[in-house]
Amino acid sequence: MGKIRTPYLLLLPGFGFLFVFFILPILNLAQTSTQTAVGGGDTGQYEQTFRFQNYIDAFVENKEQFGRSFVYALIATLLALAISYPLAYAIAFKSGKYKNFFLVLVVAPFFTSFLLRTVAWKQILGEEGFVVPTLRNIGIISDSTTLTSTAFAVVMGMTYNFLPFMTLPLFASIDRIDPRTLEASGDLYANGFTTFRKVTLPLSMPGVVAGTLLTFIPAAGDYVNAAILGSPNTKMIGNVIESRYFKIVDYPTAAALSFTLMAAILILVTIYIRKAGTEELV
Amino acid sequence: MAKKSPLSPEARSIINARVSRRAVLAGIGGVGAAGALAACGSSGDGAASGELVRWGNWPLYLDFDEAGKTYPTIDKFTESTGIEVKYFEDYNDNDEFFGKVQAQLKLNEDIGYDLVCPTDWMAARWIRLGYAQKFDAANIPNKTNILDTLASPSYDPSRESTLTWQGIMGGFGWNTAKNPKGIRTLDDLFAPANKGKIVVLSELRDTIGIILLAQGADPATVTEDQYMNAVDFMAKKISDGWIRGVKGNEYAEDLTSGDATAVIGWSGDMFILASENEGKFDFAIPESGGTISGDNMMIPSTATPEAKASAEKLINWYYDPAIAAEVAAYVNYVTPVKGAQAEMEKIDPDLAKSEYIFPSEATMKNLSVFRSLTPTEETAWTEAFQKAAGN
User: Fold this and answer.
1) Which of residues B56 and A128 earns the better pLDDT score?
2) A76 within domain boundaries
3) Phi then psi for B163, rounded to 5 degrees?
4) Which of A76, A241, B133, B279 has the smallest number of CB atoms closer than 10 Å to its CB?
């Protein structure tokens, strides 16, 4: 008996934690999402009326921001993948004894606050940063074009902020690849590109899937980058939820939007994992 | 300090570089951190005894002595009355603070504060819900010192349960190099040179208030049609690419970085920008009128009678012109106390001349207070504003 119980006892703290800090809030959120304002009540007073129409209203009113969230998150994820793959590859295969040093460099930005890093981007892309004057001097952008408060800035900020989430799983996958498989590929007359396509990439797929998920999911729900680097025309669904919750004090809509976002991400991720065919991950 | 920001309070407290700016300006660098530390680790606990007032206020909103890590005007109050004051810089956001104490207020349990400092519209909500106590006028003889403009807001017409702590003017701020003639009207603000570089406040009462005044409507009596009309005006300016952001006090950073050249902003922030960057920025009340709002000292319904009496003495203390002047020398918002200007002459004659702290009679006449909204209006109007702002 004792042997059977032990694993469950070990799981207990984890379950307890998730129950208090995940299950209970989720139930509370679910309950809030179908409430409506108390007639004659004050701001922020809601009662349970099981109004599921809240979900439809919330989605229809904010479909633009929903769409934007997924498009921005997708672009940021693809950019992060394009940047991270060569980086992770180089660290895994080419960095020799400096491997750990480079890994520390990848993680180092995490030692500072997410917000500070985003604000730094505002300065980099700002009028007094070096990017804008340089681009103006070489005539790529006009004098009246600015880079902050644009979709470009938001996507750049997201790409940068989530880059380590992409790089680390990719590195873990690529680092595990036995170099002899690459040599074998060469021995069988595959050129570099074929080796990459037939050997390296398939073997690193778990890292690609994990990295894209770890980037895409938080990016789709992110609101800090859009708040700091964007304009009213680049707001994402996270900004709407924040404003509904804190500014309009419309808890039901905020809750309904949160659930819709969760469901949308869940569906997209399920489809993606099915297609990618890496069940071992989940 | 009706500071609204698209970020959560925690987020803002991390990036709020403005804090240190003000500290440096006042020649008392580091006060931000020190003040925050002083307020840390305690959130108004301890029994409510009659000889103790627990006061929750916004950060950097009271004169602070960096050397001694003390609040000089509070110390003097304790010396002269024997009443101890615990000062907490616990206000980061009106909604957040209300959310924190709402449950206890409902149950009439001690909220940990005997004196709170909500912004006008939030004070209105407390009063509506019966969470504010009426003052005992005999304890606050200095009440009559309140500026006329602030003396009878619609949510508390005879100031029975609130008194303004500091006033906040809303108007136009601009970069003088880009706007050499200055900005006095909405047309000046939306001049071609500023296209795409305009930031307006995320506090709807200021931004929409100023647009309303320019459109000939009065924020003090605004109707729903007038309001929605003004919101549409803003939404159009956003979609046409004139307005780049609807923000809280981060607009100050946009001005300094050059990303914004003209704003609808607050007097206190612009005072700091103007004095830090000699001649580079300026602020004015629109010709058609500016807005004034305030944060208010208020005694929660949960304060004991003894604590209430002590809190009233404290309010009275800060409505003494000499004390108000001491606070004003540190805090750069509009001093709501008559006679403080004369007292300021003794402390700092330059500040006594400041239109930011002591607006002239003519300026004052040109400032409007946004009327208080019903709960239904509050939700619908905020929603319309937030939607126009992309949320």
Assistant:
1) B56
2) yes
3) -140, 135
4) B279
B244 touches chain A (CB under 8 A): yes
Question: Which pLDDT does position B30 carry in this prediction?
Answer: 34
Domain boundaries, chain B: 9-167+294-356, 168-292+370-388
Claim: this prediction has a pTM higher than 0.80: yes
Chain A residues within an 8 Å CB radius of B391: 232, 235, 239-240, 242-244, 247
Closest CA to A231 of A159, A156, A157, A153: A153
Counted domains in chain A: 1
Residue among A122, A148, A232 whose CB faces B238 most closely: A232
* Tokens 């498989």 -> residue: A181
The answer to whether B238 contacts chain A (CB < 8 Å) is yes
Residue A2 has pLDDT above 80, yes or no: no
Q: Where are the beta strands (DSSP E) in chain B?
A: 52-56, 84-88, 162-175, 198-201, 243-247, 262-266, 281-284, 290-298, 367-368
The complex's ipTM? 0.87
Architecture of domain B168-292+370-388: 3-Layer(aba) Sandwich (3.40)
Both tokens of residue B149? 């403009």
CB atoms within 10 A of CB B114: 29
Q: In whole angstroms, what is the distance from residue A76 CA to residue A93 CA?
A: 26
- Domain B9-167+294-356, architecture per CATH: 3-Layer(aba) Sandwich (3.40)
Helix crossing, B72-81 with B321-330: angle to 10°?
160
Instruction: Assess whether pLDDT exceeds 70 at residue B32.
Output: no
Report the alpha-carbon distance of residue A167 to residue A212 in Å, rounded: 10
- The answer, yes or no, to whether residue B108 has pLDDT greater than 90, is yes
The yes-or-no verdict on residue A4 having pLDDT over 80 is no
- Pick the range with the lowest mean pLDDT from A4-13, A250-259, B71-80: A4-13
Contacts of B262 in chain A (CB under 8 A): none
Q: In sequence order, what are the residues at sequence separation of 6 or more whose Cβ sits closer than 8 angstroms to the Cβ of residue B179?
A: B188, B191, B193, B194, B261, B262
Chain A nearest-CA distance from B97, in A, is: 11
DSSP code, position A150: S
Average pLDDT, integer, range B110-131: 94
Cα B249 to Cα B266: distance, rounded to the nearest angstrom? 8
* pLDDT tens per residue, range B297-318: 999 999 999 999 999 999 999 9
